[in-house]
Write a sequence for this structure.
């Protein structure tokens, strides 16, 4: 009899008629069992990294073996198969059965299986595990919501009024704080003739939201109830439908309008604080997962929750710009890392302030000229990799650490800050700051001045720390951006799970929030600039989402149109921000990013090149005005690489990398340096960057790609095709994303290595297999490179013609690529390129 895990609702484990009620109390052991059972087949290294990030590999694997031994003693031996480097679990899991029932259209089975949110009430003090729970739970909740919506709509279409009402009641029982469920029940009650019951339920629901989450129902539901009270009962009789996203009205300046209720929500202190002069006691603190808060939040609070989406996209800093270390003064600079300040409040409602304050302090310290500051983005990156253990100073290679914690009580904010010796983790100095909630913005300067005193006393030298100006005197507007900076993980989760529509909805709501900040302080350009960055991200997501659709042609055309509209909106917002009269680096950086992406939507080579030239001018100006803007340097390097100027691209990438070699751009810049050096023919240097990437980012597929490219095409590298096969097999086992979409490309590169290794029969055998496999336009030019290496020029030219016809690279870029340099000399490829360019 297999073990069975219940994960939807209150978690438990059974085997036949035997239950194990004591296991959930053993939180780490039970969490391990849940994770393994749901995932079913995982690598040991992945499990160790999640549950024992503070231990080295050997000690972590020992802890894993010990815990699995203990679980087998309780549950038996046959449910787990411990292979050399993987763990395979055989168990029945209701969440997996639920997904299968949905896919198979088994309505009754799905209704029976879903008994509540994923791992309801179970938590573990482990960020990686909680992130996994949120991702899985969010996916299952969205799946359940769509299923309930469609199920009720079918019942309504079949005129089964009472069955639809019963289904809506069941939905509310499972998720009493979900606004769409409440909306559906109100509609069904009215449709069944129970108008009074509908209004009575709404009043109960409204009180429940206020008591547990301090929010109000969505405007859509409020409007429905208003219509019912006004006698328009027929408004509720339509089939259940998704709650639409709020539309943002835009004035002539391009700055959106949001309801007054949103302004009140932003200006008010979080739950746990009391307003001065208010007799209402603080509401009971209820800790809920982010997905639950999102679903139950009001429009204003959903907007707050949307704020920092772009921070997660392509590793580009958003809202809280990641300051890079200043150029060090002569002699070794003192290295310092500012850790995100923790939220010690009872309900974790002010974490966003901790991040904003620590970012502001790092920015100010970076301007000292004698300190080398590890950027907050780099600190966060290392923390997310689980590399913050005992001896954090050694993790960051820092001489000093600054850490602290925020708390909120009686409408007063308190920040306790410590300066630590980075080598010993001993506390050097402590200091506390306290401000009224309405003056939280002033904590920025308080903390900076306090840190200056810390460092002067410790280092014995005059540390002139840069002033940390928020750019606004409006406390609520500053908090608006700070709040937005704390929820990017929600968006990353949506994008990782392919929930592009939800991500785009969050972007729209974030845009509303930034509109409000701009209205609060019209002289402050930052919110308008950030709206422009939101438009840039929205354009990118629109294209990515369209490219992944089934109706590729129509979807891609629609995605391009949506992307172009978003980019034009972003450029208009950049113009609004520029009206302050200042020549701001941020305006030029935004314009450069928008124009660079806009150029990719053009048709003709002339339009593409002129668009890229305009983008380059803007990015160059941005780096002139702010030499520490890593994002602009990175974009400039990418643009120059894209236009075939590899030496200039390498120089810009080197500058960007030195500004922050640890942060979220590190992997992309490492790979860009490899590519530029490789195209320049500096193969040994390129190999060094490839291996640096493989060492620092072992799970990034691109650093296996760079190894394949070196062996396939680099003159200075001896090809080893068998070694490449081993490299590819490693990802075959652990990453299904390369099957089958990239398989043909990687196989073609291995074939190129065989051709260079003078094993033509092996190369041709691989080519035949790739050619008979799934169609992949992207593999055409790689196959062409193999035929060119084999001296089969006519076949290579035919494949290149097909590749260019299918909308691949421009002909000029093909000609500039290393695999075809010899082909240019031997054939009429140059003439074909010129003809194709003229045709366009």
């Amino acid at each position: 009899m297999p073990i069975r895990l219940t994960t939807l609702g209150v978690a438990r484990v059974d085997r036949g008629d035997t239950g194990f009620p004591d296991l959930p109390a053993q939180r780490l052991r039970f969490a391990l069992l849940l994770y393994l059972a749901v995932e079913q087949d995982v690598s040991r290294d992945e499990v160790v990294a999640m549950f024992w990030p503070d231990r080295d590999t050997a000690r972590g694997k020992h802890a894993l073996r010990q815990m699995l031994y203990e679980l087998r003693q309780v549950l038996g031996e046959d449910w787990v198969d411990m292979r050399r480097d993987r763990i395979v679990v055989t168990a029945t899991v209701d969440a997996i059965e639920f997904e299968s029932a949905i896919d198979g259209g088994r309505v009754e089975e799905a209704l029976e299986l879903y008994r509540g949110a994923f791992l309801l009430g179970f938590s573990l003090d482990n960020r990686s595990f909680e992130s996994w729970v949120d991702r899985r739970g969010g996916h299952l909740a969205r799946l359940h919501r769509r299923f309930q919506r469609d199920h009720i709509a079918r019942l309504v279409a079949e005129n089964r009024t009472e069955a639809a009402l019963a289904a809506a009641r069941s939905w509310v029982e499972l998720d009493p704080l979900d606004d769409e469920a409440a909306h559906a029940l109100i509609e069904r009650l009215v449709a069944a003739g129970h108008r009074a019951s509908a209004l009575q339920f709404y009043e109960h629901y409204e009180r429940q939201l206020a008591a547990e989450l301090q929010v109000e129902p969505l405007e859509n539901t409020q409007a429905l109830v208003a219509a019912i009270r006004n006698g328009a009962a027929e408004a509720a009789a339509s089939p259940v439908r998704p709650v639409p996203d709020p539309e943002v009205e835009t004035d002539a300046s391009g700055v959106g309008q949001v309801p007054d209720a949103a302004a009140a929500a932003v200006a008010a202190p979080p739950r746990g604080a009391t307003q001065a002069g208010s007799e209402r006691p603080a509401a009971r603190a209820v800790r809920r997962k982010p997905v639950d808060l999102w679903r139950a939040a009001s429009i204003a609070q959903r907007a707050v929750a949307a704020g920092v989406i772009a921070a997660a996209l392509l590793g580009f800093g958003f809202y809280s710009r990641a300051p890079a270390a200043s150029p060090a003064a002569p002699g070794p600079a003192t290295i310092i890392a500012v850790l995100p300040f923790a939220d010690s409040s009872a309900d974790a409602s002010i974490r966003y302030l901790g991040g904003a304050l620590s970012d502001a302090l790092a920015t100010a310290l970076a301007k000292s000229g004698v300190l080398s500051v590890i950027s907050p983005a780099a600190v966060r990156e290392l923390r997310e990799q689980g590399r913050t253990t005992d001896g954090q100073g050694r993790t960051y290679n820092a001489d000093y650490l600054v850490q602290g914690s925020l708390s909120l009580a009686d409408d007063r904010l308190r920040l306790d800050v410590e300066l630590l010796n980075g080598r010993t983790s001993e506390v050097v100095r402590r200091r506390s700051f306290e401000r009224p909630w309405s003056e939280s913005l002033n904590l920025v300067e308080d903390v900076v001045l306090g840190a200056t005193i810390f460092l002067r006393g410790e280092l014995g030298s005059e540390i002139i720390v840069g002033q940390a100006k928020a750019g606004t005197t409006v406390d609520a507007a500053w908090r608006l951006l700070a709040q937005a900076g704390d929820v990017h993980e929600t968006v990353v989760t949506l994008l990782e799970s392919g929930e592009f529509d939800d991500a785009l909805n969050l972007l729209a709501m974030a845009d509303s929030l930034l509109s409000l900040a701009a209205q609060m302080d019209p002289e402050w350009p930052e919110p308008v600039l950030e709206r422009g960055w939101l438009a840039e991200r929205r354009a990118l997501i629109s294209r990515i989402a369209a490219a992944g659709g089934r109706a590729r042609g129509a979807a891609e055309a629609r995605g391009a149109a949506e992307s172009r509209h978003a980019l034009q909106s972003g450029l208009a917002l950049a113009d609004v921000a520029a009206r302050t009269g200042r020549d701001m680096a941020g305006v030029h950086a935004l314009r450069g990013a928008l124009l660079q992406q806009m150029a990719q939507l053009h048709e003709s080579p002339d339009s593409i090149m002129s668009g890229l030239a305009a983008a380059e001018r803007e990015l160059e100006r941005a780096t002139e005005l702010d030499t520490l803007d890593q994002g602009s340097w990175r974009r400039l390097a990418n643009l120059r690489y894209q236009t075939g100027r590899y030496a200039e691209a390498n120089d810009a990438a080197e500058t960007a990398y030195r500004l922050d070699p640890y942060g979220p751009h590190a992997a992309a810049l490492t790979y860009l340096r490899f590519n530029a050096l490789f195209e320049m023919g500096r193969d040994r240097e390129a190999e060094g960057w490839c291996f640096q990437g493989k060492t620092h980012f072992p799970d990034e597929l691109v650093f296996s790609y760079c190894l394949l490219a070196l062996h396939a095409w680099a003159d200075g590298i001896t090809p080893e095709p068998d070694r490449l096969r081993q490299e590819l097999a490693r990802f075959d086992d652990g990453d299904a994303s390369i099957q089958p979409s990239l398989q043909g490309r990687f196989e073609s590169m291995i074939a190129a290595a065989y051709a260079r290794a003078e094993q033509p029969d092996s190369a041709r055998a691989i080519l035949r297999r790739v050619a008979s496999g799934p169609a992949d336009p992207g593999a055409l030019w790689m196959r062409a490179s193999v035929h060119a290496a084999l001296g089969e020029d006519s076949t290579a030219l035919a494949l290149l013609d097909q590749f260019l016809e299918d909308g691949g690279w421009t002909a000029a870029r093909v000609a500039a690529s290393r695999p075809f340099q010899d082909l240019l000399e031997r054939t009429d490829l140059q003439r074909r390129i010129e003809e194709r360019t003229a045709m366009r």
